[in-house]
Amino acid sequence: MIWNEEAECIAKDELEQLQLERLQEIVKVAYENVPYYRKKFDDIKLKPEDIQTLKDIEKLPFTTKNDLREAYPFGMFAVPRKDIIEVHTSSGTTGKPVVSGYTQKDIDIWSEVMARGLTMMGLTDEDIIQNTHGYGLFTGGFGVHYGAQKIGATVIPISTGQTKRQIEILCDFGSTLMIFTPSYGLYLAEVANSEGIDPKKSNLKAVGFGAEMWTEEMRQEIERRYGVPAFNIYGLTEIMGPGVAIECDQKSGLHVFEDHFYPEIINSETLEPVPLGEKGELVLTTLTREGMPIIRFRTKDITALKNDKCDCGRTFIKMERITGRTDDMLKIRGVSVFPSQIEKALLNIDGLEPHYQIIVTRPHLMDELEVRVEASPKLFSDEVKELIGIKNRIESYIEDEIGLRVNVTLVEPKTIPRSEGKAVRVIDKREI
Ligand code: DLL
After folding, report:
1. Which end of the chain, N or C, is surrounded by fewer C-beta atoms within 10 Å?
2. What is the pTM of this model?
């Protein structure tokens, strides 16, 4: 259990003072050590000393995913590469991924915030936690792992997949907490049921889920199937990974770990801040990150902040669950996918017309992605075996691009609806 009362129950004025000191420091470090930030500041004639109050954060330039991608691989590091002890990358992004680098201090902070969040779910050193998040470049596996180890729980680093094995281990090891993406959690429960196993009869006392969008109905379904409370975990590779904000037992929003991450909500059109409580795009600044300080990162995630007093005793501000994105990024089985990546793969193959649709469904509680693309009249008149060959080629191409196997359907020329305005490329039938 990690209950850091001094930090988590800090008085508002003390928190603001701490945030200001940390912001001033991080801005100075970024300016002095990261050429990208130096240039951006110089362009608008801003000096680190201009940050005198927290409100002055609004003078600072935004950072986008694209900026970070351009710095690929190590251009955003604020310390010599040798001080970076671990790297992760964002999944399936267009072009180069974003590299996130951590010093030992950053890993310690990551462990601390994740430990605080797992404590909210009731994890103690008596518990066994089954971590189904992927271990590797994805931040999910390691983030949860570090937090659970800091608490002293027994970690089962089983990673994603091997669904039947997951269920066997849940029963045999008596896992008391399980972490998954909401869609994988539902799928696991369904497979368990089909094996004649009822997850409600397991030793679980809670589950934690995150990494993709979900609805209250989905949470209720998870809670019904597992018979335990389900807690929301939010985070993103660029800022740290999971553990930026996590839900306490009140389940009325996620506490943002404000001593390490400074949240703002902006209107994504005007880029101006919106009043407290209103929805907009979440912007995050790392306040303590050493290896890769990030200033005003535009997450593209839509949420609202609320400063209500929480009965759990923590004073950190709460954010609502994410209800959408300002861009067209899809999360398919936890992997980020942009329609433009699929388009890029399609345009690389002869015999296809540039008309396609991406259809996302969740037939057996697992995300499925179908790409419908028009074959050229010439291709369409070819033999069936040619068509099958090209279908397989497109599927492999897309898999190389996004890292996921999708189902490609070649359709007759001129059958995909044409639009007069913005083409409707994505049809998401998952109801999330
Ligand atoms: O998904 C980090 C993570 C791992 C969070 C495990 C929670 C648990 P990325 O792959 O970089 O990092 O994807 C970040 O995923 O901008 C959101 O759009 C979405 N996302 C993450 N958590 C949630 C959540 C990890 N709880 C992107 N609810 C973010 C809704 C989420 N969307």
Report:
1. N
2. 0.88
